[in-house]
Amino acid sequence: MDTFAVKGHVIYTKTKDEVTVTENAYIVCENGKAAGVFPSLPERFRGIEIRDFGDKLIIPGLIDMHLHAPQYAFRGLGMDMELIPWLNTYAFKEEAKYADTGYAQKKYRAFCDELKTGATTRAAIFATIHMPATYILMDMLEASGLVTYVGKVNMDRNAPDDLRETTHESYESTLAWVKDCASRYVNTKPIITPRFVPSCTGELMRSIGGIAEQYGVPVQSHLSENAGEIAWVKELHPEIASYSRVYFECGLFGHVPTVMAHCIHLSEEEMELAQQRGVYIAHCPQSNTNLASGIAPVREMLQRGMRVGLGTDVAGGFSASVLRAMGDAIQASKLYTALADRSRPPVTLSEALYMATKGGGGFWGKTGSFEPGYEFDAVVLDDSDINDAAELTPLQRFERVVYLSPEIRADAKFVKGVRIKL
Amino acid sequence: MDTFAVKGHVIYTKTKDEVTVTENAYIVCENGKAAGVFPSLPERFRGIEIRDFGDKLIIPGLIDMHLHAPQYAFRGLGMDMELIPWLNTYAFKEEAKYADTGYAQKKYRAFCDELKTGATTRAAIFATIHMPATYILMDMLEASGLVTYVGKVNMDRNAPDDLRETTHESYESTLAWVKDCASRYVNTKPIITPRFVPSCTGELMRSIGGIAEQYGVPVQSHLSENAGEIAWVKELHPEIASYSRVYFECGLFGHVPTVMAHCIHLSEEEMELAQQRGVYIAHCPQSNTNLASGIAPVREMLQRGMRVGLGTDVAGGFSASVLRAMGDAIQASKLYTALADRSRPPVTLSEALYMATKGGGGFWGKTGSFEPGYEFDAVVLDDSDINDAAELTPLQRFERVVYLSPEIRADAKFVKGVRIKL
């Protein structure tokens, strides 16, 4: 590791309320961490290598807090159902194919290429129940240079035969995998991944919750996405007060770092529990729109100090772009304002960028900002194809990237201070 | 004009309820009109030229029922306000620049290039109040081969000084322009364009309504987009029962073919009036989302037999793609279902394609379908960059284009039977 600087128009958020923009600035990277953003290079860094990206925009690497690698292959299809029928009709059928390692090899390759060339640097990913395919995915992700959590999915009830494990085999394979991964990868880490309460018995959830605590492995799952799903959880666990409490009682709700996707319909008690337990919320506005699930009150969550990041939720979401997720978060919140609650101001560009970077960043340590001490994840964006108005500020140019060019490829990408091959 | 066929996977809608797909089909064009879609070429067409587009998708040319050419240059910027402040802060400032013909020349060039190379074949376009810039736009559009209505905008009240005409000069310049255009263009037609009620005195609206009737020129305007706007109209015309009735009483509501953008908050009486008068509604879901205006009940409108097309409403909408407008119409309707009314099923892909083609098509004659007798507007789409799943049907591939690749460039484009240069 060495010390170098990248130069360009630097855009990031220290707080949810403000975008910090420094034109023609230097971000210094020391041993993989940001040492600060400077309008001119300080004396003490004289002589370090400068990678000059000229008029381009530089933002922190974007963080995708929730997506399903095996669903990437059918993104943009079957967008005509709500959650439970959609899972049964489309998602589970596709996931079952990952028993075939040849299929997994081919489809995961396309998924990794997309992730690598876009603006994402870190992601929390669902795989399938299949161990061999999950290793294939993890091997590819490790080779990509991205930093990811990958979850072998656990399912021992209410799943089709070819995706349902016994409680015992689900536990045993998860345990063996967690032990094996400890020494196998640098940037690719296992994450305990009960699909969601309807797919996992209490016994399974408690036992994998135990693995999480024993081995210090984080947890990801789904929570409170759809009204039918919530009613189903109530039916399955009538003795437990809420959906969140089911996870809590199984050791899966902030006992280790935990990210829960969606969290659309949380009760006040659940909000308080999630906040108190430090649970990260992966807000997935596009998926929540496509499956007509609703829209989580993310501004309020941020305001009360809850931890909120953005997820693309491929393939409930059709786009794997976190830039698009930013635009979608703003747009969905505007429809919430217009259709449900005029007193609730929409998500701002600043809040959207914050969620996409520093908001979810804490899940990975100090990540998602260029403030000193943060891991140096940076993405250089070349917007020259849409930068047709010479008088625009860097922030205006970035707003246009979010709306006009969300599928933009990264021009250069650094993860933990290392420039990765695109 | 001659007879020829184009060959490919043909996708169109005869009704709002069903997409008609014919794989490896021939669409025969005779003298600029479709003669039908055939799985194999009928005997009577033996020997005609066949333009074979292989595995590509062929859809009717898309129709953009509402957009603002002078706002194209600032699309994707300033998406942080609702309608009236947005107009005052962003839109009017930009439109004032079109007093400068050099500016107009440059910006309208980019606008026309976008329209030409995308999937749009016809559009109803707002220009500005400025006559010279409007001619520049019309000349460029005529050269493009697209079929358009272009409106010199009328504004004689509640507008900044540099965009406000006197009633007399607004009327006189409109009259002179309508007369002049009669012989000037083949595919580019004038359309009477009072900006909206707040910007036009009753006297002006009545007088340009008279021009519309006398010269058989259609009408376009905005209607019922935003609650504040509606209240303002009520204040300006307390004696008239509704926003729609203001237009009606000025001869601007179906006296000639009329398209009204938005129509989000129509009362039942206004819905009936619009239907009875055969008024076309330009549904602009992206703009209505960006400005937090609300979502028009377009399924219900279609169901009761009202005429509904799609508009991109650049630059309330940031995208000039009608494919994106299709996806947005579906997505916005899903959030309506989730947030406002669970009993209202969302817009389907079929309904979205119908609105984007045949729904608005009647405004232009027999347009928007490949049924015999319809004007032959066709767009060939090359989806090979996202067609990574060999087993997909053409309809599935089209669904993915709508969601994954809405900014796709046309591979080939025919307007009224003529292949236009892209």
Write a concise keyword list for the protein shown above:
homodimer; 422 residues; alpha/beta; Urease, subunit C, domain 1; TIM Barrel; 2 domains; 7-stranded mixed β-sheet; 4-stranded parallel β-sheet; 17 strands; 36% helix; globular
What features would you describe in this structure?
The structure is a homodimer of 422-residue chains. Chain A has helices spanning 83-96, 101-117, 131-144, 167-181, 202-215, 227-236, 243-249, 268-276, 285-290, 298-303, 322-339, 349-361, 394-404, and strands spanning 3-15, 18-30, 33-38, 49-60, 62-68, 120-126, 147-151, 153-154, 188-190, 193-194, 219-223, 258-262, 280-283, 307-310, 378-381, 410-415, 418-419. By secondary structure, the first copy, chain A, is α/β, with parallel strands linked by helices. Chain A folds into two domains: 3-61 and 369-419, Urease, subunit C, domain 1, CATH 2.30.40.10; 62-364, Metal-dependent hydrolases (TIM Barrel), CATH 3.20.20.140. In chain A, the strands form four sheets. Chain A has a seven-stranded mixed beta sheet with strand order 3-2-1-4-15-16-17. A four-stranded parallel beta sheet of chain A has the order 5-6-7-9. Chain A has a four-stranded parallel beta sheet with strand order 11-12-13-14. In chain A, helix 4 (167-181) packs parallel to helix 5 (202-215) and helix 11 packs across helix 12. The mean pLDDT of chain A is 97. Chains A and B meet through helix 9, helix 11 and helix 13 of A and helix 9, helix 11 and helix 13 of B.
